[in-house]
Amino acid sequence: LPPLQFQPLSDGERGWANFKLLFALPWRRFKKDAVLTFKLEGEISDQLQGRFSPGFSMPQLTDALEKAAVDPRVKGIAVEINPLAIGWAKVQELRRYVKLFRDSGKFSIAYMKTAGEKEYYLASAFQEVVVAPTGNVRLAGFSVAGGVWQCGRLVLAVLQCGRRMSCRVAGGRLSSLAGC
Question: Parallel, antiparallel, or unpaired: how do β-strands 157-161 and 167-170 relate?
Fold first, then answer.
């Protein structure tokens, strides 16, 4: 799939959006410099969820990221990523929309307690990745030879390494796993 391209609002579109914000319903109002926060975990449905359904659906998530990218009141996003029970196609789609949001020039932070390949791949699209001090990241099957660890966006420190390079990680900074 081609990457999504961020298109800032034109002056007319920005004026219309600001006009609509003046008459927004009370529960849709929030202050300037707000941070969009949500938690991703478990299954994420393809169909739009009802108002009182637990969790999010792909249309809700992609729409929220798209709208937050152009909303002048949103300063950035902070997402907690927990173990996901979704396929690689959904992870790739979410990653595309996170990159679209980042292209808007706003900050994006991912927080993980426990992560595997899918969670790490999704988190790598964010500007900053934070792993809990007691967290662990399992990257079985990922090659460490490329620029994965050298990009400078991953904040990790190795606590313990096993014989097969399975490492437990915690807060700190790591530039390479070559010594594992």
Answer: antiparallel
CA 27 from chain centre, in angstroms, equals: 25
Rounded Cα–Cα distance for residues 74 and 101 (Å)? 11
State the pTM of this model: 0.72
Please provide the DSSP assignment of 77-119 as one string.
Answer: EEEEEEEE---HHHHHHHHHHHHHHHHTT-EEEEEEEEE-HHH
Among 52-56, 70-74, 122-126, where is mean pLDDT lowest?
A: 52-56
**What is the tens place of the pLDDT at every residue in 72-99?**
889 999 999 999 999 999 999 999 999 9
Q: What are 14's two structure tokens?
A: 């920005």
